[in-house]
């Protein structure tokens, strides 16, 4: 267990606020011609999702400006009330934005979600888009994927130098101000949003990006105050460094005096590394989703398709593991979380609380007779199981990936018949569990309908 925790942390890789320097000039945005270079955005949706059928378009822009870097001021304690000062100013940068928006601007909901793209595997990965794109598209939200770190920028240039020759990030110390300037650009440039302006701008990030968003929430949001809410997905207890260091504070709760809400959304893989910083406060909500993995088959299907097109990891080969990858429906909880965060950021009610995943000494997840976790949010596919859903896997052709992808192990035919003597019993139990999840606020009605339709069509028993 200790070795698993160490590997996970490796991959996941105010007191009062010290006044910042004067606010930088607004960054500029420049449209990237659709046919530039190879003709598509790296890590984008083209050829992977049929956005046009859903009334959406994908566009790409360069974002250029001058960014500040920051440094720690005084002692940073685990309550997250961190004082920060500007370390340097005027650092030039150019990065890129991938914008997915309704073709008909009248459909725009007013909500923009800006994702700090994940670079744990050396290339931009839009994790939160891969989980919740269906929700964004049916809501009329606009999604913006931001290349925020040097590894992602360098990979863009190497994969498509004709398209991304101007992209340049000198280091990750710029990432925090670039993330702020992206929100500033979204608010100041209606052309990014089909001519509209946003009502709410939400920031999100997963895994390694979640560690950086933890630092952002505690150290930068109080200074810049450009996001209306933050989604921190798949974090560990530690936070990212504010400068170019290898590691940041080892224990970091989200500060409780922020003026905007923060949603911490965790899979079962994440809880061993984050149980020590669990929070539910007036401005911080934590959900832990039982049976889910840090990454899963649903997201992997999109990553594999984009990777086959871009050839960015393992020469485009699909990621494989020793065992079938976790197929639990984490996306349903993430969709509900985004709906709640949006409402919360608009001044509405706080999201419902949720029970934590049951653990022994915050180190070992407690399990039932089928080896599924106890406690946590229990989506209908988990509450009425046909498999054991585990948080880690092994082996594989991409080092480090499978440990985060989890496993799905079907229950035996005998166990299935013991649980569900006939198909009608299975569907009735599944439907009741789905309705309970909707009532509790953990499942949205459209996802409930999709889930029940799947159960009705499933050959169970």
TrEMBL record:
Hydrolase keyword on record:
yes
Family annotation (InterPro entries): Abhydrolase_dom
Q: Which residues form the Alpha/beta hydrolase domain?
A: 33-453
- Among the Pfam families in the record, one is Abhydrolase_10
Whether Disulfide bond counts among this entry's keywords is: no
Keywords for the protein's UniProt record, in alphabetical order = Hydrolase, Signal
Native organism is: Amycolatopsis melonis
Q: What name does the UniProt record give this protein?
A: Alpha/beta hydrolase domain-containing protein
User: Coiled-coil ranges per the record?
Assistant: none
- Any GO MF annotation of the entry: hydrolase activity
The signal peptide, as residue positions, is 1-24
């Amino acid at each position: 267990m200790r070795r698993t925790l160490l590997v996970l942390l490796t991959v996941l890789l105010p007191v009062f606020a010290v006044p910042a320097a004067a606010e930088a000039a607004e960054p500029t945005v420049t449209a990237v011609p659709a046919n530039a270079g190879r003709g598509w955005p790296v890590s984008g949706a083209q050829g992977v999702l049929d956005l046009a059928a859903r009334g959406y378009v994908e566009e790409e822009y360069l974002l250029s400006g001058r960014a500040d870097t920051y440094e720690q001021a005084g002692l940073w304690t685990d309550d997250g009330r961190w004082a920060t000062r500007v370390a340097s100013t005027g650092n030039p940068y150019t990065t890129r934005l991938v914008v997915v928006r309704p073709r008909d601007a009248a459909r725009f909901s007013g909500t923009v979600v800006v994702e700090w793209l994940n670079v744990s595997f050396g290339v931009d990965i839009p994790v939160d888009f891969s989980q919740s794109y269906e929700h964004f598209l049916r809501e009329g939200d606009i999604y913006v994927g931001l290349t925020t770190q040097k590894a992602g920028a360098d990979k863009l240039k190497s994969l498509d130098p004709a398209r991304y020759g101007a992209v340049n990030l000198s280091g990750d110390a710029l990432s925090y101000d670039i993330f702020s300037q992206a929100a500033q650009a979204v608010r100041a440039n209606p052309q990014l949003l089909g001519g509209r302006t946003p009502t709410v701008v939400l920031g999100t990030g997963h895994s390694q990006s979640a560690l950086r968003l933890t630092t952002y929430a505690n150290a930068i949001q109080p200074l810049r105050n450009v996001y209306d809410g933050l989604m921190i997905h798949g974090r560990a207890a530690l936070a990212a460094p504010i400068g170019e260091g290898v590691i940041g504070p080892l224990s970091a709760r989200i500060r409780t005096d922020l003026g905007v809400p923060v949603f911490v959304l965790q899979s079962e893989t994440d809880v061993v590394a984050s149980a020590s910083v669990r929070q539910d406060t007036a401005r911080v909500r934590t959900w832990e989703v039982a049976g889910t993995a840090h990454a899963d088959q649903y997201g992997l299907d999109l990553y594999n398709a984009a990777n086959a097109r871009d050839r960015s990891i393992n020469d485009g080969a699909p990621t494989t593991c020793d065992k079938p990858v976790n197929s639990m429906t984490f996306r349903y909880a993430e969709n509900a979380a985004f709906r709640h965060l949006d409402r919360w950021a608009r001044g509405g009610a706080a999201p419902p609380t949720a029970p934590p995943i049951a653990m022994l000494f915050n180190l070992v997840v407690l399990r039932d007779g089928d080896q599924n976790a106890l406690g946590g949010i229990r989506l209908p596919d988990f509450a009425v199981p046909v498999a054991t859903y585990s948080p880690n896997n092994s082996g594989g052709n991409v080092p480090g990936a499978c440990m985060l992808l989890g496993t799905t192990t079907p229950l035996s035919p005998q166990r299935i018949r013991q649980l569900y003597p006939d198909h009608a019993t299975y569907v009735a139990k599944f439907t009741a569990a789905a309705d309970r999840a909707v009532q509790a606020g953990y499942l949205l009605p459209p996802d409930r309908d999709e889930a029940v339709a799947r159960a009705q069509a499933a050959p169970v028993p």
